[in-house]
Specification:
globular; four-stranded antiparallel β-sheet; Alpha-Beta Plaits; alpha+beta
Length: about 90
């Protein structure tokens, strides 16, 4: 499993086709309650292939092409490889 965790800033109104992608286990973006405009990112993908397909998807390419127009900036995402996840 691959985890994507991080932050970026954007105007509030995005995300849906990614949730329907094969291999998407979780796709959650949330506004930080203490820092307006900061979006918290939590994604889980079945494997590297699923994430690569997501990164090459038409809807993501279109979204990236509009970052400047949408005011997205300060992108800071990190990929982690996770194994043996267990509930706490």
């Amino acid at each position: 499993m691959l985890l994507i965790i991080g932050t970026f800033r954007l105007p509030p109104e995005m995300i849906e086709a990614s949730l329907e992608e094969d291999g998407c286990l979780a796709y959650s973006y949330a506004t930080d309650m203490l820092e307006p405009g900061l979006i918290r990112v939590n994604e889980a993908w079945r494997d590297a292939e699923a994430l690569e397909e997501h990164m090459a998807s038409e809807h993501l390419e279109e979204w990236r092409a509009n970052w400047e127009r949408l005011g997205i900036h300060d992108r800071d995402l990190v990929q982690f490889t996770a194994s043996n996840p267990k509930p706490l």
